[in-house]
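Quick sanity check, S9 family peptidase:
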Amino acid sequence: MKTTVLKFSGALFLFLGMVTQVNAQDIVGAWEGKLAVQGTEIPLVFNVAMEGDAYTSTMDSPSQGATGIPMDVTTFANDTLTIKFNQAGIKYVGTFADNTLTGTFYQGPNEMPLTLNKTVKTLPGNTALPTSDADLEKLANWDPTNYKYSVEDYFARPKARSFSFSPNGTYLSYREKDENKKNHVYVKHLETEEVTRVIEEKEELIRGFGWANDSRLIYVMDKGGNEDYHLFAVDVDEKNQKELTPFDGVKVNILNGLKEDKDHMIISMNQNNPQIFEPYKINIVTGELKQLYKNEDAANPINGYEFDKDGNLRGFSKLRDGVNIDLYYATDGDNYEVKKQLSWKDTFSIISFNYASDNPHEAYVISNLDSDKTQIYLYDLKEDKVIKKLFSNDKYDVSSLGLSRHRGYELDYFSYEGEKRNIVPVSDYFKKLHQRITTKFPGYNYSIPDVTDDESKYLIFIQSDKLYGTYYSYDPKKDEFKLLYNLMPNLIENDMAEMRPITFKSRDGKTIHGYITLPQAALNGEKVPVIVNPHGGPQGIRDSWGFNPEAQLFASRGYATLQVNFRISGGYGREFLESGFKQIGRKAMDDVEDGLQYVIDKGWVDKDNAAIYGGSHGGYAVLRGLTKTPDLYACGVDYVGVSNLFTFMESMPAYWKPYLKIIKEIWYDLDVPEEKAIMDEVSPVFHIDKIKKPLFVVQGANDPRVNIDESDQIVEALRAKGVDVPYMVKYDEGHGFAKEENSIALYKAMMGFYAKHLKQDVKQPLKD
C-alpha cells in the first residue's frame, strides 16, 4: 500500500490508501487479451470488481461461449493483479502500467505470456437488436387463450423424468422439478422407499446424469449452453460431490463406462489442444486422470476410439488428409496397424466386441462397404474379413443390436427405423420378452432404457404419436408390469393428433419419405394452415414417428405440421444421403417444396396459408425458403439458423476445424469458384431484397455452432429495409433453448406470430 503525505499549515496528514483507491478504480473493469496455444489464439476476459474493500473477478472465454466463471482469489497490491481459479489450476499474475496488465497465465505446469488491455464488457452480438420482452408478450397475445391445452401443457417439463435403476437394482434415480423449474436429481431406495436429493440444480442446467456404479452417480454441466461439458460425480447419499474435470474451455465426452472396474470410466477431452480429443481413464472418486493415448497430429487427428469392456484400447479411427479415415487395430494388444483405409463417406463401425466368442478379435460391426444400406456383420478384425452377415433391410439402414451381459453376451435383438422403430428379436429369451411387451402395449413403440445387472428388473418406456410417454417396471419372474410414471398425464391421448407417414416422388423422381400431423379440422375435410418444419443437421439426421410436442401444439391451434426427410437425411441408405451433398439450399429445398405440394394436392392444407419453421439447418431452410420461393410461404420462424455460409464456416468451434474438408464436401467449398458462386446464391443474407413475408428470428447468445452474428446479420439487414422483424435472444442459452421458461416464452411468441400472420378460421374448444 502506498502512503501519500500532504502538508497543510505545518501539519502533516497521512492519507493511507488514497492512491491505492485511485489504482483500484483503474483496475476495476473488463480486461481482455489473447492466449497463444499451439498456434491457436484463445481470447480471455477477466472482469474485476470491488465489493466493499475486497476484490472479486470472473473470467470469460468468448471462443468457448463461457461467461461469468467466478474466480477464487483476486488481489491487487503493489501494482500487481493476481487472480486464481483453484479447481482448474489457473492463475494469472500481471503488472499494471499505462492502463495495461502485462503478465503470465498459468495452468498446471504450463506458463504463457498474457497481456490484458482494458475493454468494455459486452454481451454477445448487437444488444440493440433484440425485441423487448414487453413487445414479445404483445406478440404472444395474438394467440387466443380459449384452447383446451396451453403452451405450458406441451412444453412444461414433466414433474419427474429420466428414470433409471442402480446396477444392482437397489435404487431408482430420476429428475424431479421444483416450484422454481429446477430439475434436481433424486434417488429412491426401492425397499425402504427413502428418497434423497443427491444433485441440486442451480443456475447451470444438469445436462445429463447416470449411474457409474451401485453407489455413485455422474453428471455433466456446461456454462450457459456453450457445450463445453464438465464431468461431476456424487455418492448416492449426497456426499463426496466432486467436479472431476475442472478445466476451463475443455469439453468432456464419455466414451465407456467400465462395468468391470467400478471406480473408473473412459472419457475424452480436448485439454491439450482445443481442436482434438484424447482418451483418459478417470477415477470417478478422486478425479485422478491417466491419459491412455496421445492424439498429437491436429492435421490428421484420431476421431474415434475403440475400447473393450475392460478399458483396453483395441483400435481407433484416424482422419487422413481431411476426408479419408484409416482404421487402426492392435492384433497383439499393443501395436496398432492400419486394417482399413476408408472414405469418410464409408460406414464401418464397431458396435461391440463379441465377448461370447473364444476369438478375441470377433466383433459386431455396422457397414455399408458392400451395400447401399448399412448392414450388421460378425467380423474378424485381425483377419479383416466377414465371418457372417447377420441382419439387413432392403429399404432402411440397420441401426443397432442388443446384447445381454447377464446371459454371457447373448445376442438379443436387432433394430432399425423405417416409418416407425422396429425391433427384431433374436434370442429365445428376448422373443418371449418382446412378445410379452407388444401384447401388453399393441400399437405403441417401446424401448428398454434400463435393466438391472441380473435382469430382475426392466424399465420399459412406452410411447406413440399421441402418447408423450409412460414408464413401466417389469418383473420377469412375476411376469408383472407396474406403471411407474406417466410423464404428461394432462395430455389425453384421444385429444392428440395422429402423425401419418407419407411417401411421395420429388420433381426429379426420387422417393421421399416424411410425416404429416393433421388437426381435427383437416380430418373433417377442411383445408387447414400448415407449418412446414425442415429438420436440423442436415446430414444423417431424420424426422421420426412418435410424440412431437411442437406438432401437437400446432395441431391444437388448427395447424398441420409437415416434416420431410429430404435428400441428405439419414436412415435411407448411402445413395440417398450422398445425393444431398452440395445440394443444401438447392435440391434439398426442392424436396421440402415438393412435400408441401404433395399435401396440398391431397386436399389437406391451404396452399395460401403455409408457414415455414425450423432450427439450426432448419432455421437456415426457413431463410432460404423465404428467399428462394418468396411467394410460397406466408411467414417464417428462424430458430438458431445459419444466414451466411461464409461466416458460418469461419465461426465454427475449434473442434470442428479438423473436419472442415468434410464440411466443405457436404456443404460447399469457397475455394472452388463454381461453389463459391453457389454459396452466394444460397446464403440468404445476400438476398434480403427477396424476403417479403413476415419473419420471426430466435437465437441463443452462447451458441457455439451457429454464432449469434448469423442471426444479427439477417435482422439488421431486414430492419434496414424497413421490415419489422421480432427478434428473441436469450443470453443464458446456446444452440436451442434448454431452460423451460425460455422454451415456453418462445412457443408463446411463436403461436402469436402464427395467429397474426396465418388466416385461421378453425374454432377450438374452450379449456375445461
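Posting the structure with no commentary besides this: Residues 1-22, 762-768 have pLDDT under 50 and may be disordered.
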